[in-house]
Amino acid sequence: MGAYEAVIGLECHVELSTATKMFCPCANTFGAEPNTNTCAVCLGHPGTLPVPNREAIARIIKIGLALGSEIAPHSIFHRKNYFYPDMPKNYQISQYDLPICVGGHLDVESGDGSTTRIGITRVHMEEDTGKTQHGSASGRIHDATHASIDFNRAGVPLVECVSEPDIRSPEEAAAYLRELRATLASLDVSDVKMEEGSLRCDANVSLRPAGAEAFGTKVEIKNMNSIRSLERALTFEIERQTAALEAGEPIVQETRHWNEDAGATASMRSKEEAFDYRYFPEPDIPALEPDPAWIEEIRSTIPELPRARRERYVREFALPPEVAQVLVANQASAALFDGAVDGGADPGIAANWVTQDVAALRNAAADDGVLTPEHIVDVVGLIADGTVSNAGAKQALEASFATGEPVADAVARLGLTQVSDAGAVGALADEVIAENPDVVQKFLDGKEGVIGFLVGQLMQKAAGAANPKLAQELLRERLQG
């Protein structure tokens, strides 16, 4: 970047996983047939009245408390006016200058182990818009011949978390979004699936001379549907703005679209100001004045948050920080690990199984399978007592992942039990020694590394069923005898 410093702020939109929409009783479900989760309220019919979703309000308060926000004793909804092709009312019920949650912060760990505190400006509630699908090969509006609109998403409760412009690099922005996503997942307020749009992120970025206090002209970037996209888009935009400033060209305040395929941003429109939306108080919804006792009741439901959980894993179980990071990034993985440790599994071994083998199974299947902590406990135990090899345990776990059957049952059904009978394994050791005189001589000449080859030959004869530890012991006993 040379003599320039990036100033970045993120606006993260979170769809809450409530049963119904924000202001009507329509189902809040992803993937339903288009325009089936609709009613007169979310379709904006004249004479209808919105009724706030109490559970959605409880969830935004929970988010605010987790982020250290102040819960406003008095907040109101506004109408945000401009033409929405996919919002039938042509205004959005949102919040403006009196949001529910004010201030707060999120501590983000950098790659060097240091911690940066990113301020939270506000966390406010609004309703989502519908979804427009453009009839073109690219899905873009510019070459579309028609558009289809699905109003199922219109009115879904949407929380917007606005950060302070405290972020200084694309890497730090990605770390912030990962931490926010993990926090929201731990609160169980949203499924935070970026690929389904339940967590979306816009970025504001500007450059200023290094050491300067005044901000430069900011540009908003939209259409980033993954953390990787966020990092790539910010990197491109910083490079674009740097080149423009070095060439003496002015930066225009605008909204730009991130094109994932092209790896570039493109101008969409000039950036709106607050007055462009003609905000005014929503006349059909009274002010929100949550009872302090209700707020404390919500506070009592906040679980251990990701940062505290990572620190506990490192402190109590001596897990490497990077392993703790991977565990906590996925709520299901952390729960599986905690349950396995509570069931008596060695923490380090259990963590390896959850972050490696279980994660690989989930990625391949695109779901969490039907594993329970007991499956992990059994896998660790069966390996420890020599009943099954690591390779056999992986096969058994894969079967359990698909069917839910106990690991021991999968081992028996698939014939994965290790042969630990000294007589049977010893007979195979004798065969291997007799068949590999050259390798045996190398071992006798001091090249102990060749023992691995001999163990491999024995395991091959046993079709992988022999206990490898016992196999090595019996081979050494015979060779050194």
The main sheet comes to:
10 strands, mixed
Total number of helical segments? 15
The topology string of helices and strands comes to EHEEEEEEEEEHEEHEEEHHHHHHHHHHHH
DSSP, total strands: 15
The fraction of residues assigned to DSSP E strands is 15-25%
On the 0-100 scale, what is the average pLDDT? 92
Rg, Cα atoms, Å: 29 Å
**What structural class do the secondary elements suggest?**
alpha+beta
**Basic shape:** elongated
Proportion of helical residues: 25-40%
Cα-to-Cα separation, first versus last residue: 68 Å
Overall tally of domains: 3
Poorly predicted runs of 5 or more residues: none
How would you explain this protein's 3D organization?
With 481 residues, the protein is an alpha+beta fold. It folds into 3 domains: 4-297, no CATH class; 306-413, no CATH class; 422-480, Arc Repressor Mutant, subunit A (Orthogonal Bundle), CATH 1.10.10. The protein is built from 15 helices and 15 strands. It has helices at 54-66, 170-187, 227-246, 292-299, 306-317, 321-329, 331-342, 347-365, 373-384, 390-403, 407-414, 422-435, 437-444, 451-461, 468-480; strands at 4-15, 70-71, 78-81, 91-94, 101-102, 105-109, 115-127, 131-134, 147-150, 157-163, 199-209, 219-224, 254-259, 264-270, 280-281. Strands 1, 2, 5, 6, 7, 10, 11, 12, 13 and 14 form a 10-stranded mixed β-sheet that branches. The longest helix is centred in the middle third of the chain and has 20 residues, at 227-246. The protein is elongated.
Layout: helices, strands, pairs:
Layout lengths: L3 E12 L38 H13 L3 E2 L6 E4 L9 E4 L6 E2 L2 E5 L5 E13 L3 E4 L12 E4 L6 E7 L6 H18 L11 E11 L9 E6 L2 H20 L7 E6 L4 E7 L9 E2 L10 H8 L6 H12 L3 H9 L1 H12 L4 H19 L7 H12 L5 H14 L3 H8 L7 H14 L1 H8 L6 H11 L6 H13 L1
Parallel strand pairs: 12-13
Antiparallel strand pairs: 1-10, 1-11, 2-5, 3-4, 3-15, 5-7, 6-7, 7-10, 8-9, 11-12, 13-14
Helix pairs in contact: 2-3, 5-6, 6-8, 7-8, 7-9, 9-10, 10-11, 12-14, 12-15, 14-15
